[in-house]
Amino acid sequence: MEEKNLNKALTPVKLWAIIVGAVVSGMYFGWNYLFEKTNFTGALIATFIVTLFYVSFVFCYSELATAIPSAAGPTAYAEKSFGKFAGFIAGFSILLEYIFATPGIALSIGAYVHGLLPVIPANIAAITAFCIFVFINIKGIESAAIVSVIVTAVAILGVAVYFILGIPTVDVHGLFSSGASMNGMHGIFAAIPFVVWFYLAVESGAMGAEECKNPQKDIPKAFISGIGALVVMAVAVLIVTAGNSAADLSAVASTDNPLPAILSKVYGENSFLVKLVGFFGLFGLAASLHGIMIGYSRQAYAMSRSGYLPKALSNLDKNGTPVFALVSTSLIGLFFVITGNVGSLVVFSCIGSSVMAVLSIASWFVLRKTEPSLARPYRLKSALIPTIAAITCAVVVVALVVSQASLLFLAAIVYAAAILYYLVKDKVFANGFVSAENEMEA
């Protein structure tokens, strides 16, 4: 029987759209919860730290992704550096990050739809949107990538419209003289997990490496230009939102559709312009829901192919799509759409992202030492950028520990269950294990 492979349909533009699309929802919701923790000054400091982390991380990640262009992404990097167990933890962390991110996005879609059409209940809209994008992804990567390009372009246009409409209302003096307290370092640390939402899932493009036509050249182009676009949008959204002279930041912190909520204070709740930004917001949320689904389905597929997860998850349909991996992981996400709380989902997703980032950055340092001759089509000239990534990543991890102790306890239980699963499965299927890298080459 002829072996099916993932379909190589991704160009640099399509990969860029998947990367930016997976993240762009972070401009439309999630980050705004930081205003429960600090004021604009604290938010600006937190944003600087997180932005420095993600920019430096993307440069490291681009080198790893071109040296080891596997759908397994961080699983393959950690496995090559530290062995099977680290590979499993990296892959599990990606799944944790993405599977908890998509319900949060879907719930925000429901809030945006309800804001535009109050007759539609938010929970019904959320469930419907989630199911629609599972179906789109089932159709295959080529059609999925085309959808990513379209919805991402509209989402970026929406951020631009929000900036144009909102910038005239910004009170520059008021930005730094708000009556709200910064709450010192605790406020900044508490804000950091929500600022991460501006960039969460940017690494998802690496899971499309095996579907790129020329991954060694396409991945760096897409990642570096993608993070540049995201930084510009994040700063623009933060300034316009916090600086709006009519804004009540405590109210902004409690809504799942902050951009229309801000503009409604200026233009009125029934204004066409407010509705327009809400409409654009749906595209931003849809782009991320869509892009992250691509990411977690490919991660589950790659982990199954390597023996970490049940073999059935690596089955491909006639279009080269890992349908079973997509549907089974989506069912978990759908459960949390029905039962989840957006703020908690955001933080839980950040925990998975942080573990993945720690292992990926550590892999960069280890592979530079243990595999100096490894072909690196994109190569950093020095260790300065990875060092910055390591330091700022440590700050993000400390922020999570300091500000999210209760959720960290729950996350520890989840990781303990995953490790127990790994130990049992490894003994049962030890003879059938295939490394992520070798399976990719096969």
Provide a descriptive summary of the structure in words.
The chain is an all-alpha fold. It has a single domain (12-441), classed as Amino acid/polyamine transporter I. 72% of the residues lie in helices and 0% in strands. The protein is built from 17 helices and no strands. Helix 5 (122-138) packs across helix 12 (272-305) and helix 6 (141-166) runs antiparallel to helix 12 (272-305). The chain is globular.
Number of domains: 1
Residue share in helices? over 70%
- CATH fold-level name: Amino acid/polyamine transporter I
Q: Tell the overall outline.
A: globular
Roughly what fraction of the amino acids lie in strands? Answer: under 5%
Q: Over all CA atoms, what is the radius of gyration?
A: 21 Å
Question: What's the mean pLDDT score?
Answer: 85
The total count of strands amounts to 0
How many strands, what sense, and barrel or not for the largest sheet? none
Structural class call reads: mainly alpha
In the predicted model, the low-confidence regions spanning at least 5 consecutive residues are none
The CATH homologous superfamily is called Amino acid/polyamine transporter I
Tell me the span between the first and last alpha carbons: 15 Å
Subcellular location: Cell membrane
Keywords: Cell membrane, Membrane, Transmembrane, Transmembrane helix
Organism: Lacrimispora defluvii
Transmembrane segments: 12-31, 43-64, 85-113, 119-138, 145-165, 185-202, 222-242, 272-296, 321-339, 345-367, 379-401, 407-424
